Amino acid sequence: MLSVEGLHVAFPGRRGGADARAVDGVDLDIRRGEIVALVGESGCGKTTLARSLLGLVRPVRGRVTFDGAPLAHSARALKAYRRRAQLVLQDPSGSLNPRHTVYDIVAEGLRIHGRPGDERTAVAEALSRAGLRPPERFFLRYPHELSGGQRQRVVIAGALVLRPELLVADEPVASLDASVRGEILALLLRLRTELGLAALVVTHDLGLAWNIADRVAVMYLGRIVETGAVEQVLTAPRHPYTRALLSVLPEAPGDPVVLTGEPPDPSNIPTGCRFHARCQVLADGTAERAGVADACRSREPAVLHGGGESQVACHWALAAPREVSPAGPAPR
């Protein structure tokens, strides 16, 4: 349904310096009814990629294709596209107008897009699908009168009211209490089952990815470095970066992998593998013994294509036999 090909997004550098390459060559496909988790540490380009899928950030190169048609960035084309693809933001308090009632917040999309039909019925149906029942009880409430979980359900209802085919959810439960997180995740799974929704869920939480996603894409410094079925990637990770992310989970056996230094500046991406300066496999001599250390430092791995099969952008992982990571399975 959604296809990303060779996407590059850059932002002007500070004081006339080199551009920051926030998304630096990404291919990604999302099928109908599929949930894909995009994971990685802060600053890796996840949110920029998600926003570019909705036309909120214009790429400098590459293209986004939805239902076979390239995404155009004219106001008219984007308005039509956003009836079919909707964004769910991380902070419900920041994305809801405190002066508007729940009814007006959810009805706003209908009014902007002029969807035919009875407005009150559509709003009630969206709130009900989002788990706010009976919906009429919430019509005249304001955001400050709701709990955090209820506010996030209002955000989801506002996206659902247009009956979209794709949801892009940027850290949809990061600001919620642990007791509410499971309810929102269960809601997203139910919506996929009932409505056939596809979703891209942006998160730094590998446990969340394990619980909700069909497929996972691991992003580092503007590129996807590993992708595949969630069970395969999170139980037998091949990229050293994925292994490091999994090693710090509370349930992971063994000692956590502590990555040295900070992620490189996206305006000065290192030559070779962009992870090599922090790579534990290169640092402990494992890559040297496999005969790929020079390649790690000098040759950039190819961009992974957007298909669903297991892929990894790592010279050592491609040279080494597959094995189950000592990190073991992520918690379900």
From TrEMBL:
The keyword Nucleotide-binding applies. Gene3D superfamilies: P-loop containing nucleotide triphosphate hydrolases (3.40.50.300). CDD domains: ABC_NikE_OppD_transporters. The keyword tRNA-binding does not apply. InterPro entries: AAA+_ATPase, ABC_transp_ATP-bind, ABC_transporter-like_ATP-bd, ABC_transporter-like_CS, Oligopep_ABC_C, P-loop_NTPase. Residues 2-246 form the ABC transporter domain. Pfam families: ABC_tran, oligo_HPY. One of its GO terms (molecular function) is ATP binding. Keywords: ATP-binding, Nucleotide-binding, Transport. PANTHER family: D,D-DIPEPTIDE TRANSPORT ATP-BINDING PROTEIN DDPF-RELATED, TRANSPORT ATP-BINDING PROTEIN. Belongs to the ABC transporter superfamily. This is ABC transporter ATP-binding protein. It comes from Streptomyces olivaceus.
